[in-house]
Amino acid sequence: MTIDVSELSGAGGTRRTRALVLHPDLKSAPRRRTAEHSLDEAVSLAHALPGIDVVGQTIVRLPRLHPGKLFGSGKLDEIKALIHEREVDLVLIDGPVSPVQQRNLERDWDVKLLDRTGLILEIFADRARTREGVLQVELAALSYQRTRLVRAWTHLERQRGGLGFVGGPGETQLEADRRAIDEQVVRLRRQLSKVVKTRELHRAARAKVPFPIVALVGYTNAGKSTLFNRMTGAEVLAKDMLFATLDPTMRAVTLPTGKQVILSDTVGFISDLPTQLVAAFRATLEEVLSADLIVHVRDIAHPETGEQAADVAAILSTLGVQQSTPQLEVWNKIDQLDPDNRAAALARAERTDGTLATSALTGEGLEALATAITETLDETRTQDTLTLSHADGRRRAWLYEQGVVTGEEQAEDTVRVYVNWTARQQRRFQLMGQN
């Protein structure tokens, strides 16, 4: 499906939509990422939307945000000049834009405008293929646009791909009020509940098969689908593109170790994931919640791989993934590292428990990954009671990090900790006491 950009590009839509990507960099805002890397990610998001040509990208340094138009008058004029110079049809702002700001900026610049949430929703709408995916995207879009009411709603008839933020039918006048939107939400939720029940029946059927579920999770474009294809022989879309995979895919696979598992490929996570999508895609991500093992795939060659890993961990926590669920961390794309960094990554992975360095593209490290999956799933757990002194804070914190604590009781001089752990975790705990 492609976005109808005829309203943006003139009659007949003879050229692609020319987009300008802006990353507002607020000087006083706390930051984990550099503005340059944030802009690069925003540009990658823009490229992931069909029919878009990025003709300009820039970081806009701001001392403060202006409530009415986001930018000050000087910046507004600079950007307007750039819009005219580059013949821009669409401005993509990498951050939240209020309905008032969007209306004012579109009026001043005489172009369409999308913020980060709207752009991600557009991408998801274009990529959704399953019935559930389509319904979830529409529900998320309604939640997002209910506060705006600056677009008409004929796009909800699914006459075209995308959601209608960029172009297409019904872009000129508001044709539905909040009551109409609420009625649409009720209808979509009713349809989605039927789809969810079907998925629950499928999960119940799989539960009767004695195969554990292994869920691949990670930041978008970390290489999950390439890894999935390598391990299963499937042909899931795997491109160097954000959100190449949207709908979950599951395959039964026999690992080289002989272990049989069900492998699940999931939608990639991203920083500042719209809250509407976190809620709407909860049903899709239930495969992660019910997984016996989570394999966190990281793009170890990315300059902000640590920040991406932190975003994934935060979203998993938001989804309610239990700390007791075993996890492995896969440092993917080691083939993209230079020799020195590659050697360092391999050495660090070797020293880090539950971490493996791989290249899904070349197949390097996948045998070790299969072995680690097998060993993790085959490990039996035993219940023990530990008595620790209050000075044993480091080891007690480690037990909580491992997700093995089932309860504890405080005494005057000691803490009684109840654990459910594997033999491997028990050995590591004992070694910590010897150091």
From TrEMBL:
HAMAP family according to UniProt: GTPase_HflX
What's this protein's function? GTPase that associates with the 50S ribosomal subunit and may have a role during protein synthesis or ribosome biogenesis.
Q: Which residues form the Hflx-type G domain?
A: 212-381
- What family does the entry list? Belongs to the TRAFAC class OBG-HflX-like GTPase superfamily. HflX GTPase family.
Q: How does it assemble?
A: Monomer. Associates with the 50S ribosomal subunit.
Q: Which residues bind GTP?
A: 218-225, 243-247, 265-268, 332-335, 359-361
Identify the domain of life: Bacteria
Q: Which UniProt keywords apply?
A: Cytoplasm, GTP-binding, Magnesium, Metal-binding, Nucleotide-binding
Cofactor(s) needed, names only, are: Mg(2+)
Q: InterPro entries, per this entry?
A: G_HFLX_dom, GTP-bd, GTP-bd_M, GTPase_HflX, GTPase_HflX_N, GTPase_HflX_N_sf, HflX_C, P-loop_NTPase
The principal location of this protein is cytoplasm
| Single annotated GO MF | GTP binding
Carries keyword Magnesium? yes
Q: Where in the cell is it found?
A: Cytoplasm
The residues that hold Mg(2+) are 225, 245
For this entry, the protein name equals: GTPase HflX
Q: Which GO terms describe its cellular component?
A: cytoplasm
Q: Short name of one Pfam family for this protein?
A: GTP-bdg_M
